Amino acid sequence: MRKFRHLLVVITLILFSVEGLNPTAGQSPNLHCVITVEPLQPGQVSSTTSNRTCFNTVAESVAFATNNRIQLPATASASDVSQALRGQVGNRSTLADIVIGIHWDWTNRQNASIVWRSSVGCGPATFTVNDMTPNGWNDRAESAEGFSGCNHFFQYEHINLGGAVRDCNAYCSDLGVLNNQVSSWRATS
Ligand SMILES: [Ca+2]
Ligand SMILES: [Ca+2]
């Protein structure tokens, strides 16, 4: 029994020390995540998505998302980020480093975010994520922005592009009745 207790203590210490590696642990860490999304292929109902990689600041998440093409100070605001992304060059890359859209937890690009990136922008490609639950973003977004030719960033109330829909065009500062309701999305040129 004592051995088990020791084991538990060791496991707990390991978990705490991993958390302790995070320099800003305790200050809402890892709020800003990046997911790679593949272009929708013929016959697919949803794009293939990667696991999330998360950071403490949106400057870090965007640097990661763009393979360091866009590097901003840690204090960069969400609108600084948006402006930098609007100026990103090209819409096709050998790397999955093109940001195609961002969802924000609150209105006006505030609080946590999820950055969607790919190797190509909209036009050459379209994107559909038919269920945001595995990405941790079901019924969460309150603002949304499309980039890289994704001029129609559709937000849907339910999974599988169901229920009410809103086309954000380039940007929805406030998803209105769809606040904390969005469960799937589609991006096209
Ligand atoms: Ca929210
Ligand atoms: Ca929903």
Topology:
Blueprint (H helix, E strand, L loop, with lengths): L1 H19 L11 E5 L16 E3 L2 H8 L12 H9 L11 E9 L3 E9 L8 E3 L13 E4 L5 E7 L3 E6 L3 E2 L11 E5 L1
Parallel strand pairs: 1-4
Antiparallel strand pairs: 1-2, 3-4, 3-6, 5-10, 6-9, 7-8, 7-10
One calcium ion binds next to strand 7.
Keywords:
single chain, alpha+beta, Gamma-B Crystallin, domain 1, 2 domains, six-stranded mixed β-sheet, four-stranded antiparallel β-sheet, 3 helices, globular, binds calcium ion
Summarize the structure.
This protein is α+β, with helices and mostly antiparallel strands and 189 residues long.
Description of the structure:
By secondary structure, this protein is of the alpha+beta class. The protein has two domains: 1-28; 31-188, Crystallins (Gamma-B Crystallin, domain 1, Sandwich). Helices cover 19% and strands 28% of the residues. The chain is built from three helices and ten strands. One calcium ion (CA) is lined by residues 139, 157-158, 181, 183.
The helix/strand order is HEEHHEEEEEEEE
Q: What fraction, in percent, of the residue positions are helical?
A: 10-25%
CATH architecture classification name of the largest domain: Sandwich
- Stated plainly, the CATH topology of the largest domain is called Gamma-B Crystallin, domain 1
Q: What is the domain total for the residues?
A: 2
